[in-house]
Design a protein that fits this description.
This protein is an alpha/beta fold. The chain contains 54 helices and 24 strands.
Length: 1536
């Protein structure tokens, strides 16, 4: 040492001296140590890391950064440091020259340090040239250098004070210049440079993620996220506030990486298979007839090996993920440092000789160890979650790209729903798993380390505690399995309830007309009761699970300590053993609980992996199936001896087809249903498996499928389909495809958003849009698969003439037209007749007619049908044209003359907003807004365009904080008194837990006589009693709160809402989309049933635990209160920022998620169209953009959790620090037990602080459900169902007289009158027909009789009783209606006829017989118990109408109202109904709204309505004689 460091005061200098460093109240390091080790450490660090870092910088070139002021200062300081170091060196040389030689350290250290400073300066410049904005390597270098310089800094000052003067002035000065420069360098290193010069130009994104340019320290602490947290706190975040994704997370970077690896795997397997085949004798491969023989002979090789998707995933993502794993390893090892430090702290408190600085050192070491752990842990999570995010992006991208090239047979093997599930469920599973995948190796490691340390303290007794832990694992597993099965059952009941609610909402008009609400309410409540009983069981199970979770650590500690002290009386349980063991047991809890979950996650992911692998290994369409010829041969399409099937193993569909289509000709393909016409088109597109032959097409292809494929985009986008817009061409196309009239009717013209699958277009409109797309694309060859069948005859003629035919827009193009329309065949160039997959004849119309073959027969079959269509173009024209209006207007005349298809679409428009009501798919909102503007169409008064009267109100979404009143409403539903009781139980549980721990701390302070403690059994007994009391309180509190109160609350909340909704007037259901109501009954009720109780439970437990920690720490030292206040303030701030931001991010994420799946399912259904037009790339780009848009809101969500975690854990670490510091300060009067208790409690506090914030956030998001449900429990209801003091007699109405006295009515306030001042009297037994044009108010009259709409003035009197004075059910149950559209509910046929079980079996059969259904029902196996499906789908429309007739026959009231159904029923059924009514309701008053006048020509009187007033009212014969309105209507119908 002497040559290195010289000598000190005559003795050789020592590197280490206990007396200087440890056994002193003023510790320091020896001069030798300071001169050597402290100088060398940073140098060694930088030189060791330099080669790797230099290579890394050479690899990554991001463009250079221009020289900035920051860079200049850093460089100057670096050079200054080099000069300072070498000044020291020169000084040493000078002393050597002047014969005052110094030791070697004085030469080596400055030389080494100077060169290192030059290296650091070089790195500063080199990083700038390679575009590094912030350097972690240099940050750590300056940090280490600074720490190593702090000690000499202190020493030099102490020495100067002791000596009274500065000893070596020159070195003293240079050192402080050096220290100041290092400090400034470190400070500057925290800032980052501006973006590289070229990078800024290349990335033109508006809102770049600040992470890219964040400094190293900012990245470590996620400081760069703070800006968004503050923004989210100030106002709810919107889409425009989100940052764009980092380049390496984007789809266009991630997906190709995975696909490359996957291709490599496929190639590898292919090579192996080829190797296997070449081994087999060559003779087998020659035979043409049996191409699969080799496969038959060597099947095992073939089956065994599939390309491994797992390997592809690993090779793509493992390198990045393993960085996270390395961090996890460091964190695991660090987590065992604090228990050791706690051990040291307790022994420090015990031994009064220990020096005070040692206590402070332990305290700060605990803080730094915990802080380092926090930083490492969150960096690890960041790596894992980003890997998960990239994994999902890549898998979704791979599935999407695969779905565009998959063969039809492969597509058939899985439904669209299943393929979408691959994307939504399976990709999600991988993403969820990555966060915890490292637990697979980390949990066993933590368990082994914990057991090793526990063994050191307690010896074999540990095994008792471990045994308890292991026994609890299967117990927890059983609970988990059981609760999963409960979950499944609950979901089934919930689905049944929602299905029934959906039917109730769809048939609400019928329920009200029949007064059946009460019966259906009981049905819903019966299902709800089952659901609640399952929820109750699940709640008890949850309480049990909570009980084990809270008592497990305690039981483990109890058994271990009890065994330890009873096995050997020499075993003394002191504070060190007890509390260090407790902190180790706490570490053990997490891996033991996580391991089973991770394993089950891995199992699920394995299943998903297999499904993904199977899907990605499916056969792909062979692009060589159809040759795309470049050279013109005169023929646009050539098919020679083509034989095709849908799959390799499927039967042949087209056999030996040879077809030559000259360029520019029009070819018609005809044949019977199922003869292979569409298959021929598919074969030409290359969609089928080509078994033999060849197909060639010259030029580009456009395709119009038989079922039009319409995207969820504007009408214009659907037509243009990604081409460049030419306005002139676009207008020509619209004109040719007869779309101009439709555009005038659609609410937004060609900007109208078309719903999914074209829901707001009629079939004909969809087909014309599909055709317009083909015409606009301007291709060479047009394949038209029966586009004319969906449109009416005259429209078909227009399209043929203007588009397809010899004079159409497409003349000169090659057209292949599949058609059933015979009238067009004479105008085509060539006709191909297909019979059973073969071409039977080919030639022009005239040639084929003369041959009298299959074609002539085809003509005979279809001729009459075609003539029929030609006869009635006018009616259809009107329907075609106004369908837009029909579907979009909720006819003010409630369903007057509406075809059922339009009614169904209207229902859909209502349901569709189920999506928007949950904040998803915001595109629907605009649709709804535009649609509702159109709702005025039937309003007679023209209104200015710019102020649309919305029928469907936009849903209000709550933003910002949740009001306290909502919590109060929930508490009221739970019951305020019982809520207090529950809180008291939770407090008792906590008190018992604190009591047990105080008892333990007191026990550890028991003095040991002769190395044994007395009263051990009493100590163990009381400890056990306190612990089990805690468990008991937990069990009682948890089960009482969850199984009783919260379920009672959700039962009441649901009941109020259900009763209220059923009592709402019909106008409420018209202006509220049923989807929105269903959402309240489904998602919101589920939140109230399941999530809110769980949130509240965890929140209370975390809150009380945190409170306990703070109380215990205050017991340690009251001064702790001073520290708590600023910490809690900081906690509150962080929590407010986080909750506001994360809540909004979650919403944005869920809003942007559903478009991915809807776009995907749209793509799968339209894949053949996309391929035909060659639009794959633009669709892939659309999908990538949608995924990126979703990840754009998911990524800040992950980071917000990291940001929160680091800040919350910092608070926790501060609590640990102060607990330890106060223990050190007050050690004179503190015993080791209380110190161990407070610090081991403090070590646990971060977890509960963290959970508390998460739960606050979840609770605030979820409690909104209570508010949303409450909104529907307070809507305006219709009049009461029964007015007790004013009930009509049982036999009312006896005569059936109906009088309207000055009656006027409007639909809603603010709208015009629909019926104006009606005066009329109908005598009992009269048959009155009501006629009038659409919108005259016919249906309104029936609705008035049932008080579906209430009078504006005047009154209706039936048999002397004013209907406005009695209850609605009393009125409606005494009238009978056969509605226009027959509505049935799912349930038995009997329930549909008689939901209240009022009638006997004989009466029901009699009614069925009279309604001509007896024979049909008798033939059913279940007869009256026959299950009707939803909406009665398993009965024909005619049968449904007859069921409605049977209902009427059962009720047989004196007044019958017929809303005559024409659209639904064929003529035969209609005659049956009319004759039954004439005979069975002979004595009743019958009011019929007539659409077909021939049914009312024999009625007593006819009422003609015109614009809501009575125009004519007399017998039919008189009205015809008067030649008024009725005469004209009869004349139009050919009856006059």
């Amino acid at each position: 040492m002497e040559w290195l460091c010289g000598s000190e005061s005559g003795r050789p200098a020592r590197l280490w001296d206990h007396n200087v460093t440890i056994n002193t109240n003023n510790p320091d390091l020896t001069t030798c140590f300071q001169k050597t080790i402290l100088v060398w450490v940073p140098c060694v660090y930088l030189w060791v890391i330099f080669p790797l870092y230099f290579l890394y910088l050479r690899q990554s070139n991001r463009g250079y950064i221009r020289v900035t002021l920051l860079n200049r200062i850093k460089t100057i300081l670096g050079l200054l440091l080099w000069i300072v170091c070498w000044l020291d060196l020169f000084c040493s040389f000078a002393e050597l020259v002047n014969n005052r030689p110094k030791a070697a350290a004085y030469f080596i250290s400055p030389l080494l340090l100077g060169v290192t400073m030059l290296l650091a300066t070089f790195l500063i410049q080199y990083e700038r040239l390679r575009g590094m904005q912030s350097s972690g390597v240099l940050f750590l270098f300056w940090l280490i250098t600074l720490i190593c310089a702090v000690i000499p800094f202190r020493s030099k000052i102490l020495v100067t004070f002791n000596e009274g003067k500065v000893i070596d002035v020159f070195r003293f000065t240079t050192f402080y210049i050096y220290f100041a420069s290092v400090l400034i360098q470190f400070f500057l290193c925290c800032f980052s440079e501006p973006p590289p010069y070229f990078a800024a130009a290349s990335s033109n994104e508006q809102n770049r993620c600040p992470e890219e340019s964040a400094g190293f320290l900012s990245r470590l602490t996620f400081w760069w996220f703070t800006r968004m947290a503050i923004q989210g706190y100030k106002h709810p975040l919107e889409d425009k506030d989100l940052w764009s994704l980092n380049k390496e997370d984007r789809s266009d970077v991630v997906v190709p990486k995975l696909l490359n690896e996957w291709e490599k795997q496929k190639l590898k397997v292919k090579r192996n298979q080829e190797a296997a085949y070449t081994k087999c004798p060559p003779a087998y491969n020659v035979t043409d007839q049996e191409p699969h023989e080799a496969e038959v002979l060597f099947p095992s090789k073939r089956d065994q090996k599939k390309p491994s998707f797992l390997i592809a995933l690993c090779r793509t993502f493992a390198p990045y993920f393993l960085l996270g794993s390395a961090l996890k390893l460091c964190q695991d090892l660090l987590s065992f440092v604090n228990p050791q430090l706690l051990n040291m702290l307790i022994s420090f408190i015990k031994s009064r000789e220990s020096r005070i600085w040692w206590g402070y050192s332990i305290s700060f070491l605990m803080f730094f160890s915990a802080a380092l752990q926090t930083i490492i842990l969150h960096q690890h999570f960041q790596y894992c979650f980003v890997t998960g995010m990239r994994l999902r992006t890549a898998i979704v991208g791979a599935i999407y790209r695969k779905s565009l090239v998959i063969t039809n047979s492969a597509k058939r093997s899985s439904t669209v729903g299943e393929i979408v599930n691959l994307m939504s469920v399976d990709a999600q599973r991988f993403m969820d798993l990555t966060g915890f995948l490292n637990m697979l190796w980390s949990a066993p490691l933590q368990i082994c380390l914990a057991l090793y340390f526990l063994w050191q303290y307690l010896g074999p007794s540990v095994l008792a505690g471990v045994a308890v832990m292991i026994l609890l694992i299967p117990f927890n597993a059983v609970i988990a399995m059981k609760s999963r099965s409960f979950q499944v059952q609950q979901m089934q009941h919930k689905d049944a309830r929602i299905k029934l609610m959906n039917e109730i909402l769809n048939g609400i008009k019928v329920l009200k007309l029949y007064a059946w609400e009460a019966s259906f309410e009981q049905k819903v409540l019966a299902i709800r009761q089952k659901e609640l009983s399952i929820l109750k069981k699940a709640a008890y199970l949850n309480a049990l699970s909570t009980f084990t979770w809270t008592t497990a650590p305690f039981i483990v500690a109890l058994t271990t300590f009890a065994v330890y002290v009873t096995v050997d009386e020499n075993n003394v349980l002191d504070a060190q053993k007890a509390f260090v063991s407790l902190s180790l047991f706490n570490i053990l809890r997490f891996p033991l609980n996580m391991l089973p979950q991770v394993i089950s996650g891995v199992v699920q992911a394995t299943v998903s992996l297999k499904r993904l692998q199977n899907f990605l290994s499916h056969d792909e369409l062979d692009p060589t199936n159809v040759e795309r010829q470049k050279i013109a041969t005169g023929h646009a399409i050539t098919m020679l001896n083509g034989t095709f099937s849908w799959g390799k193993t499927d039967p042949v569909v087209l056999n030996g087809i040879s077809l030559m289509v000259p360029q520019g000709s029009l070819v018609a393909v005809v044949g019977h249903v199922g003869c292979g016409k569409s298959s021929l088109i598919s074969a030409l597109l290359g969609e089928m498996e080509k078994l033999e032959g060849s197909v060639a097409i010259h030029g580009s292809v456009a395709y119009v499928p038989q079922q039009a494929w319409i995207r969820n985009a504007s009408l214009k986008d659907n037509i243009i389909f990604g081409e460049l817009l030419s306005e002139q061409k676009y207008q020509q196309v619209l004109e040719a495809c007869a779309l101009i009239t439709d555009l005038n009717v659609l609410p937004g013209g060609d900007q109208t958003e078309i719903g999914e699958k074209g829901i707001n277009l009629s079939g004909g409109q969809k087909q014309r849009v599909s055709l317009a797309r083909a015409v606009y694309s301007d291709m060479d060859v047009y394949l038209l698969d029966d586009p004319l069948s969906a449109v009416d005859a005259h429209v078909a003629k227009h399209i043929f003439d203007k588009v397809i035919g010899p004079e159409g827009v497409l003349k000169g193009k090659t057209r292949v037209l599949v058609t059933h329309g015979i009238s067009f065949l004479p105008q085509v160039d060539q006709i191909v007749v297909l019979v059973n997959g073969r071409i039977s004849e080919m030639g022009s119309y005239q040639e084929l007619q003369n041959q009298n073959g299959a074609f002539a027969e085809f003509l005979r079959n279809y001729a009459q049908r075609d003539d029929l269509e030609e006869d009635e173009p006018t009616v259809l024209d009107e329907e075609e044209e106004f369908l837009g209006e029909d579907t979009l207007s909720n006819h003010i005349d409630l369903g007057d003359n509406e075809p059922p298809a339009a009614e169904a679409r209207k229902q859909f428009m209502r349901q569709i907003s189920v999506i928007s009501s949950d904040g998803e798919a915001s595109t629907w909102k605009s649709t709804r807004r535009r649609l509702s503007e159109k709702k005025k169409v039937a309003d007679t008064v023209p209104q200015p365009k710019n102020e649309p009267k919305d029928l469907i109100q936009a849903e209000t979404a709550e933003t910002g904080r949740v009001k306290l009143i909502v919590f109060w409403q929930y508490l009221k539903a739970v019951g305020p008194f019982i809520s207090v009781v529950i809180c008291f139980l939770y407090c008792c549980q906590n008190a018992a837990a604190i009591g047990a721990n105080f008892w333990l701390s007191d026990w550890t302070n028991d003095p040991a006589f002769n190395r044994t403690q007395h009263r051990t059994y009493m100590r163990v007994g009381v400890y056990a009693a306190l612990g089990f009391t805690q468990g008991l309180f937990t069990l009682t509190g948890s089960s009482l709160s969850r199984a009783y109160c919260m379920l009672k609350a959700s039962r009441l909340i649901h009941l109020h809402m259900l009763e209220h909704v059923l009592c709402c007037s019909l106008s409420f259901f018209e202006s509220t989309p049923s989807g929105r109501i269903l959402n309240r009954f489904g998602k919101d009720m589920d939140t109230i049933d399941v999530n809110i109780p769980e949130n509240i439970d965890i929140w209370i437990r975390c809150f009380l635990y945190t409170l306990a920690v703070l109380l215990i720490c205050c017991a340690l030292s009251p001064a702790f209160l001073l520290v708590i206040v600023p910490l809690l303030l900081f906690y509150w701030l962080v929590q407010r920022f986080y909750v506001a931001t994360s809540r909004q991010l979650k919403r944005l994420e869920s809003v942007s998620r559903s478009p991915i799946y809807s776009h995907f399912s749209e793509t799968i259904t339209g894949s053949s169209v996309i391929r035909a037009y060659g639009r794959q790339n633009s669709f892939i780009l659309m999908n990538d953009n949608k995924v990126d848009a979703n990840q754009k809101s998911y990524y800040p969500g992950i980071v917000s959790n990291r940001w929160l975690g680091i800040r919350i854990e910092f608070i926790g670490n501060c609590i640990v620090l102060f607990a330890a510091l106060f223990a050190v300060i007050g050690r004179a009067h503190l015993n080791p037990g209380i110190v161990g208790l407070s610090v081991s409690y403090a070590l646990q506090v971060t977890m509960s602080l963290n959970w508390m914030v998460r739960m606050t956030s979840d609770l605030e998001s979820n409690i909104v459900a209570v508010e949303r449900v409450k909104e529907y429990s307070e809507t305006e209801t219709e009049a009461p169902w029964v007015i007790e003091g004013n009930r009509p007699p049982e036999s009312w109405p006896q005569a059936g007289n109906v009088e309207f006295k000055g009656y006027s009515v409007r639909y809603r306030k603010g709208l015009d009158l629909v019926l104006k001042d009606l005066h009329l009297s109908v005598h009992g037994g009269e048959k009155v027909g009501i006629v009038g044009r659409t919108g005259a108010g016919k249906s309104s009259m029936t609705l008035c009789l049932f008080r579906i709409i209430e009078a504006a003035q005047g009154e209706i009197v039936i048999d002397g009783i004013k209907i406005a004075d009695i209850g609605l059910h009393d009125l409606r149950s005494k009238l009978t209606i056969i509605p226009q559209d027959p509505v049935l509910f799912s349930g038995s046929l009997r329930m549909n006829l008689d939901p209240f079980n009022q009638y006997s079996e004989e009466e029901i059969w009699k009614a069925l017989e009279l309604s001509h259904l007896k024979q049909y029902v008798s033939s059913l196996p279940a007869k009256l118990e026959h299950e009707c499906s939803e909406g009665g789908e398993n009965l024909s429309v005619g049968q449904r109408q007859l069921v409605c007739l049977a209902r009427a026959l059962l009720r047989k009231t004196r007044i019958l109202i017929l809303d005559e159904a024409t659209a639904a029923v064929d003529l035969e059924t209609d005659d049956l109904i009319q004759s039954t009514i004439r005979t069975q309701f002979e004595n009743c008053t019958v009011l019929t709204i007539a659409h077909r006048l021939n049914t009312i020509m024999d009625y007593t009187r006819v009422l003609v309505l015109e614009k809501g007033r009575i125009a004519e009212f007399d017998t039919p014969s008189k009205l015809i004689a008067e030649k008024g309105i009725f005469y004209n209507m009869a004349k139009d119908a050919g009856l006059a």
